[in-house]
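Incident log, structure service

09:12 report received: a user says their structure output differs between two submissions of the same chain.
09:20 pulled the input from the user's history:
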Amino acid sequence: MRKLLSGIWRVITFPFRLLAKTFRPILLWYKKLAGNLRNFLTEEPEDEPLPDTFAKTIENPSSIFEHINALRKHLFRALIFFAVTTAISFIYTQQIIDLLAQPIGGIEGLVAIDVTESISVFMRVALLSGFVLALPYIAFEMWLFAAPGLSRRSRFFGLLAIPAVVFFFLAGVSFSYFVILPRALPILLNFLGITTIPRPSTYIGFVTSLLFWIGIAFEFPLVIYILASMKLIDASSLAKQWRLAIVIIAVLAAAITPTVDPVTMSLTMVPLIILFFISVGMAFFAQRKREPKAT
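09:34 re-ran on a clean worker, output below:
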């Protein structure tokens, strides 16, 4: 009787034991992953001054190859993800090209003279779209590379900075498309009273380059914040050099903007100057977080 009841019990509980046996490795893997992630986020690295770290690297150059190998792995994963997002971008690249051509009246205003010109334009726009889609993951891979050397607080704020990277880049792209292009194109297309019919490769190359570099320039506050957190720059020294910074911004604005008129150049300079002072404030904020630990 006992054997019969035991057999019936085994038959009844067989599906549950099968599920437990199937999901046990998954649960163990999840538990291990959660433990590693918790240790990764809460572990405090050894606080060592940067000159001492540099001196140890000089004494033992082989240690730098470990970091180079780790960087290679992160860059490889980011490149794979970038290739995937570029392939996905092929689905709506035509719509993006139509959107980029709207400031000159649509794609009908472009005239191609080379056989492969349309294909090169399509690939260029797909690459830019794939980069924008892959930007959060690329920033995440860079955070994974830098996180082991950061403090727990800096590691947490670095993770929160990833959405900010995307936001600042998209803000720069939007500023270029909605503010700079509508004012620069009429001057470029009708300079000296000569009507210009642009080629797709020339126009799309010009627009994508402008959008990309303005978007990169809008990342300046985050770069300054990271450098200040790593004690590579001083906020007060940065604030004292504001006159030199404005001159450098003027040179960069002249290099980025497509026209030579002062209006378009000023439209580029004003947000860059505002971003510079935001960067100074973020540098002071980064130093304030370091001062309690130093004392």
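09:41 both user submissions now match this output. Likely a transient worker issue. Closing.
09:42 reviewer note: The first helix runs from residue 2 to 42. Residues 219-290 form one domain.
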